[in-house]
């Protein structure tokens, strides 16, 4: 088993949970407690980071088929795998177990073993290395997405993915810096704590004295040359937050002056005669004749005002439907039969309640509503 890459093991078995008894408290317990509490507070309050990781996972799920030939989606999948591996590390659980074994008063003389602290340090090595990988891969993804954005296709999808990657880049960078700081604070306690018969850390494995130097990367620096190049290349995106149109005008004028100075182009304005404004031309229009066909003809429903009129219409409609060909253009044969049956039903109801004028009027209104479309 290779002990050199102990931090890179996916399923690293922790040492047994044990404590030892000391005669005197040679360890600054309160300082160790404060460091672990700050670490737990930071690792627990990663809701923004978890949300962005969830956004990335869902974006890949929705776009991996459509963008299967895109190189950027392959890089995003690498970032997602690194985030999933960091999630499986469950640093909160291991730090909580170690913190619970530290006494809260000076009377207790039982402390966790050195192996448990060494396990936390090795886990911090792996977490920092994962964050560095996410940061460096996010740079590559941002570069590829920027290339696709410059083409001008699928802006909504590309800007969405670029925003997710940018936020993951910043959060991973800050988390990697925190892991380096936490490692530096916990490393001196390995000399103060003691170990039992069981030694978890192999003899040939040496914990680095400076985690940031061990990572051997420039991505954790405040500003790098690559970041400056990316910032200069994407400076035009700052105009999206501007609400003033003068900013666009100033940028366009600056670009024009820059091109003119480089190419020595002289712009000559030629005055041309564009003619007389259209407002001064007298336009004569002929008055349109009144279209007699546009006058609305009286509808069929206007001629039905009583039960006798409705019976007459139903009789004519049943015997000679060709009389109402113009009125029946909007309905088909089946609708015509339904109309005829419904009218016959209303007529029977009106004959049945002929002495009740209210019901007769009600069914007459229903029949007229039915014929209103004709």
Can you give the mean pLDDT?
Answer: 76
Count of helices? 13
Query: pLDDT below 50 for ≥5 consecutive residues: which ranges?
Result: 224-256, 278-297
Biggest beta-sheet profile? 2 strands, antiparallel
Indicate the radius of gyration in whole angstroms.
41 Å
**Which percent range fits the helix content?**
55-70%
Physical arrangement of strands within the biggest beta sheet: 1-2
What's the number of extended β-strand segments? 2
Order of helices and strands: EHHHHEHHHHHHHHH
| SS content category | mainly alpha
Number of domain modules: 2
Question: What characteristic shape results from the CA principal axes?
Answer: elongated
The end-to-end span amounts to 90 Å
Strand portion: under 5%
Describe it.
This protein is mainly alpha-helical and 374 residues long. 58% of the residues lie in helices and 2% in strands. It starts with 18 loop residues before the first strand and ends with a helix. Strands 1-2 form a two-stranded antiparallel sheet. The chain has two domains: 229 residues, no CATH class; 73 residues, no CATH class.
Offer a few descriptive terms.
374 residues; mainly alpha; 2 domains; two-stranded antiparallel sheet; 13 helices; 2 strands; 2% strand; elongated; Nepro; Nucleolus and neural progenitor protein-like N-terminal domain-containing protein; Nepro_N
């Amino acid at each position: 088993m290779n002990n050199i890459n102990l931090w890179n093991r996916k399923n690293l078995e922790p040492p047994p949970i044990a404590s030892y008894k000391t005669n005197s408290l040679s360890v600054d317990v309160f300082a160790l407690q404060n460091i672990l509490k700050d670490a737990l507070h930071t690792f627990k309050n990663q809701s923004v980071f978890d949300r962005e990781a969830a956004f990335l996972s869902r974006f890949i799920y929705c776009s991996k088929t459509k963008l299967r030939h895109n190189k950027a989606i392959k890089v995003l999948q690498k970032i997602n795998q690194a985030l999933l591996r960091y999630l499986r590390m469950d640093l909160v659980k291991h730090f909580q177990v170690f913190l619970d074994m530290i006494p809260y008063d000076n009377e207790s003389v039982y402390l966790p073993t050195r192996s448990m602290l060494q396990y936390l340090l090795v886990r911090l090595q792996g977490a920092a290395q994962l964050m560095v990988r996410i940061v460096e891969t996010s740079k590559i993804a941002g570069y590829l997405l920027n290339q696709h954005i410059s083409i001008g296709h699928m802006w909504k999808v590309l800007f969405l993915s670029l925003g997710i990657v940018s936020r993951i880049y910043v959060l991973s960078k800050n988390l990697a810096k925190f892991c380096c700081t936490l490692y530096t604070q916990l490393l001196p306690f390995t000399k103060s704590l003691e170990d039992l018969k069981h030694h978890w850390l192999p003899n040939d494995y040496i914990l680095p004295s400076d985690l940031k130097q061990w990572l051997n990367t420039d991505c954790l620096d405040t500003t790098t040359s690559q970041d400056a190049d990316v910032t200069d290349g994407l400076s035009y995106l700052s105009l999206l937050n501007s609400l003033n149109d003068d900013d666009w005008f100033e940028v366009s004028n600056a670009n024009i002056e820059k091109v003119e100075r480089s190419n020595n182009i002289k712009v000559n304005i030629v005055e041309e005669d564009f003619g007389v404004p259209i407002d001064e031309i007298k336009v004569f229009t002929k008055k349109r004749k009144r279209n007699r066909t546009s006058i609305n003809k009286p509808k069929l429903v206007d001629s039905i005002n009583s039960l006798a009129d409705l019976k007459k219409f139903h009789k004519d409609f049943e015997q000679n439907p060709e009389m109402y060909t113009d009125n029946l253009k909007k309905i088909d044969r089946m609708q015509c039969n339904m109309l005829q049956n419904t009218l016959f039903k209303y007529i029977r109801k009106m004959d049945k309640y002929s002495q009740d004028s209210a019901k007769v009027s009600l069914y007459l209104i229903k029949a007229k509503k039915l014929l209103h479309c004709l």
